[in-house]
Amino acid sequence: MITRLNHDLLKEEGVIHGFFGKTGGVSTGLYASLNCGVGSQDNPENIIENRARVAEEFASRPERLLTLHQIHSATCLTVDQPYDALNNRPQADALVTETPGLMIGVLTADCGPVLFRGRKKDGRPVIGAAHAGWGGALKGVLENTVAAMERLGAEKSTLKAVIGPCIGPSSYEVSEDFKNPFIEQVVENIRFFASSERSGHLMFNLPAYCQRRLELAGVRDIAILGRDTCAEEGNFFSFRRSTHKHEPDYGRQLSAILIRP
């Protein structure tokens, strides 16, 4: 059975969204079972079927499910028509659209999936999806997503964002010098780091950092699902967990949003 998490902040007539977990697909082994990551080494036929199952949850078609070749950048693309997300994915880390029927999504395995919705002055919806790992968040991918939605006419006062399942603050241990670019950005960012049991290490709060970047971008309504991908092995794929287990690869879960046609 497919696990699909929702949040009331994104629920409104005409918009459908979901943060999907790892269950309900056809993949096996390291990728069991709803692996939607085209960039993984999973059987391509299984990935195609898994993505079709996700599209079906939205009463959509797989060719209208748009994802990216994610590169931990700040790049956000505006889309108004389908493209070949299996064989010709653009390199970027966020998508926005005002076009009904386009299912825009991001793939994660510890990074933060952030889904957005907003409205134009005439009430029509604008949506966004961002892949916010520490690198992309630090570079400004969330602010760029907000700006792209505004360029489509979304009023900033209507914007809402939900940070989905990602590595939690009790799982994200980093080296002590990891904090340096964050502190160089603004010294107050030290609050997103806590002491670790290991000498020379810190614990980083990725969802809280993403929330702050959204606040600074002017988003008023923000929620964090608070689900830890690394800790919840039965529910989510996790790059860090796979690394600790010395596994050669890992699956990716999908988070997506759509304006109903």
Structure in words:
There is one protein chain. By secondary structure, the chain is an alpha+beta fold. The chain has a single domain, classed as CNF1/YfiH-like putative cysteine hydrolases (4-Layer Sandwich). The protein has a 6-stranded mixed β-sheet with strand order 4-5-8-7-9-13. A 5-stranded mixed β-sheet has the order 1-2-14-6-3. The model has no long low-confidence stretch (mean pLDDT 98).
Describe the structure using short key phrases.
14 strands; globular; single chain; 261 residues; CNF1/YfiH-like putative cysteine hydrolases; 5-stranded mixed beta sheet
Please give the structural blueprint.
Blueprint: E1 4-5, E2 15-20, H1 44-57, E3 65-66, E4 76-78, E5 94-97, E6 103-108, E7 112-119, E8 125-132, H2 134-139, H3 141-151, E9 160-163, E10 173-175, H4 180-185, E11 193-195, E12 201-204, H5 206-216, E13 221-224, H6 239-244, E14 253-259
Parallel strand pairs: 3-6, 4-5, 9-13
Antiparallel strand pairs: 1-2, 2-14, 5-8, 6-14, 7-8, 7-9, 10-12, 11-12
Task: Briefly summarize what is shown.
This protein has 261 residues and is α+β, with helices and mostly antiparallel strands.
Termini Cα gap = 26 Å
Q: Spans with pLDDT under 50 lasting ≥5 residues?
A: none
What is the global morphology? globular
Count structural domains: 1
Helix/sheet category: alpha+beta
What is the number of E strands?
14
Helix content: 10-25%
CATH H level, superfamily name: CNF1/YfiH-like putative cysteine hydrolases
Number of helices: 6
The main β sheet shows up as: 6 strands, mixed
Along the chain, the helix and strand elements come as EEHEEEEEEHHEEHEEHEHE
Which fold name fills CATH's third level, the topology?
A: CNF1/YfiH-like putative cysteine hydrolases
